[in-house]
Amino acid sequence: MHVHDILKTVSKFYGVEPEIVLSSNRSQITCKVRDVWTYILSKGGRSTTDVSKITKRERSSVSHSLIRTRRALKEDDSFRQDVLFLQNLTRQQRMQV
Asked: What per-residue string of b and e applies to 23-54 under the rule 16 or more CB within 10 Å gives b?
């Protein structure tokens, strides 16, 4: 599955346009979508350097995003369920390609 297809899936789930996620917009929901997308890319085997190039963010921003997301996954059951659902969905979509 192409990285931008993953972005479209995550964006659609949260009701945010992919173009906004790629922009410099820092609204809470946009940052959440960007964090989840970054996390899924990372869990898919991409390095923080690769993820930073794909998401057009500094590597340190990607690292901080991953830390923030891992913390949220431990603390928020609803968020963890959403991320697991999206990981499974993108994995299934990858298998269909």
From this structure: eeeeeeebebbbbbbbbbbbebebebebbbeb
For residues 27 and 57, the answer to whether their CB atoms sit within 8 Å is: no
Structure token pair of residue 89: 């969905």
Q: How many CA atoms lie within 13 A of 68 on its CB side?
A: 15
With a threshold of 0.90, does the pTM exceed it? yes
Q: What is the pLDDT along the chain (97 residues), one digit of tens a residue?
A: 699 999 999 999 999 999 999 999 999 999 999 999 999 999 999 999 999 999 999 999 999 999 999 999 999 999 999 999 999 999 888 777 6
In angstroms, rounded to a whole number, what is the distance separating the alpha carbons of residues 16 and 38?
15
Contact in structure between 44 and 1 (CB atoms under 8 Å): no
User: Which tokens go with 37?
Assistant: 């997308």
